[in-house]
């Protein structure tokens, strides 16, 4: 058994945790408050041509005015599917179809809608935490395999502590980003 088999790849674990954070920030970008933004439809997937496809691959997304997002769907057969995906996405916007265009009027945020958005943000953050915990579990599994391959107790403890420290930092970062986003949403 070589020494390399007993090494745990902390960089890979860190990269995967960073990936969960990047995904969270992308989801948070879709929770624009107040002003319209093309990123509000980025996380929405449409069942198109037998697979889930992002809206921006089915049409052009524009923001012609501060409270309006317009999607120009290229394939007329996809208009109803795009409209349905938007309705079911939970972004709280009712699409208006006008020929090949789907207009998304961004409503003024009332207190109730702000609270709903903070709950959506919390759900996104919880998903990121679950992804981070899954990476931690994979790291701990690597450590168990290395122990079975002959890693000593001291090394096992050291690697476990390192993986836990990475996990704690990542979870704290998610909490911080969530708190910041919730304050932004609640700001009138």
From TrEMBL:
It comes from the Bacteria. InterPro entries: Ribosome_recyc_fac, Ribosome_recyc_fac_dom, RRF_sf. GO terms for cellular component: cytosol. Gene3D superfamilies: 3.30.1360.40, Ribosome-recycling factor. Pfam families: RRF. It is found in: Cytoplasm. Residues 24-186 form the Ribosome recycling factor domain. Keywords: Cytoplasm, Protein biosynthesis. GO terms for biological process: cytoplasmic translational termination. SUPFAM superfamilies: Ribosome recycling factor, RRF (SSF55194). Responsible for the release of ribosomes from messenger RNA at the termination of protein biosynthesis. May increase the efficiency of translation by recycling ribosomes from one round of translation to another. Belongs to the RRF family. This is Ribosome-recycling factor. It comes from Gemmobacter aquatilis. The gene is frr.
């Amino acid at each position: 058994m070589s020494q390399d088999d007993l090494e745990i790849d902390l960089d890979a674990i860190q990269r995967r945790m960073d990936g969960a954070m990047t995904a969270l920030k992308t989801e948070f970008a879709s929770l624009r408050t107040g002003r319209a933004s093309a990123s509000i439809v980025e996380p929405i997937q449409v069942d198109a041509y037998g697979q889930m496809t992002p809206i921006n691959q089915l049409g052009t997304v524009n923001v012609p005015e501060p409270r309006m997002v317009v999607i120009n769907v290229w394939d007329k057969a996809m208009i109803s599917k795009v409209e349905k995906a938007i309705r079911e996405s939970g972004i709280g916007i009712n699409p208006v179809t006008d020929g090949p265009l789907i207009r998304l009027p961004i409503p003024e945020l009332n207190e109730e809608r702000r609270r709903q958005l903070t709950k959506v943000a919390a759900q996104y953050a919880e998903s990121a935490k679950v992804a981070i915990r899954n990476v931690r579990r994979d790291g701990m599994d690597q450590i168990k395999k290395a122990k079975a391959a002959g890693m000593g107790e001291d090394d096992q403890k050291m690697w476990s502590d390192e993986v836990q420290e990475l996990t704690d930092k990542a979870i704290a970062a998610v909490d911080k980003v969530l708190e910041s986003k919730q304050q932004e949403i609640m700001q009138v």
